[in-house]
Amino acid sequence: MISALFSINTTNRNRPARQHKTLARERGENFPIANRSMETTELSHLPEGCVAHIVSLTTPRDACRFTNVSALFRSAADSDAVWDAFLPPDLHAIVARSDAETQKQLAAVHPRKQLFMRLADSPILIDGGHKSFFLEKSSGKKCFMISAREMTIVWGDTPTYWKWTSLPESRFAEVAKLRNVCWLEMSARIETSLLSSKTTYTSHLVFKLKANSNGFDNIPVETSVGINGGVKDSKRIFLAPYDRLLQIVPRPMRFSSFGRRLRRARPAAEETAEGSSSGGARDAHLYPKHRADGWMEAELGECFLDGDDGGELEVSVKEVERGHWKRGLVIQGIEFRPKA
């Protein structure tokens, strides 16, 4: 009985499969498969304008790679139609905020790919030289740096605490040199309409530490990033590079009057690192890194812009709790660029 039921069930399960195969054979005889007689269309047979449109829907990095495919793709990928699509739609309005000489130089740059590369490799100064603008090369997203003079620095106009001077390696006419303060607080803001929408931006303090700097080794600063006063990201970071912290000579162990060895407090760097979600004292987001232009940068936080935020993106850096005197910090500005 069981074997009979099993036989019936097996037959019922297999019957649709046999019927499907039969129908497929019949359809194959009556309706030949199209791709058996259809010739394959190659991309090389497409018009150059069509290829250019396809490439314009990718990224600048992809467009550069397409130039190695064929002569047709090279011509299409280098066309003005492609690179016009990669340039920001408000480029003319941004360039209009630069000086007359810069506008004249950019107007003479052709073709459009060369203009894109010029803006990616060489930032231009806008708003009276207090901001710089450039393009992120791989995506074409807009990037800006706010100069130290455009930032809000507490006690920044007091010569006893801060000194304004020029450095040949700075893109701005002035940088801020910290002479001596125990209350370190600074901030910067930028209109969200200037930045690329649907993009996560990271902000970076661009600075240097002089050889005789003091008050930054093993002492974190607090940062916050937000829109219109709201905080979307905050953390504690260090302005002294990690390799410099390793060179700090630990203080000798102290003993109490009763001969007991006192417990030495752990460095703030270790405490902050353990409190980080990434973990580990070598967390790259906790310590500054060296830039190709000779400066250092410290990541202050990130914020996603959906295009409907409005208002201003605000960033702040401060160390006001410990009361340590600090000196030797040189600030060029705060940079906003798409998250890598």
UniProtKB/TrEMBL annotation:
Domain (F-box): residue spans on this chain:
40-86
Coiled-coil parts of chain: none
Listed InterPro entries: F-box-like_dom_sf, F-box_dom, PP2-like
Q: Which SUPFAM superfamilies match?
A: F-box domain
Q: Where is this region: Disordered?
A: 266-285
Q: Which Pfam families match?
A: PP2
Write down what this protein is called. Answer: F-box domain-containing protein
Q: Which organism is it from?
A: Kalanchoe fedtschenkoi (Lavender scallops)
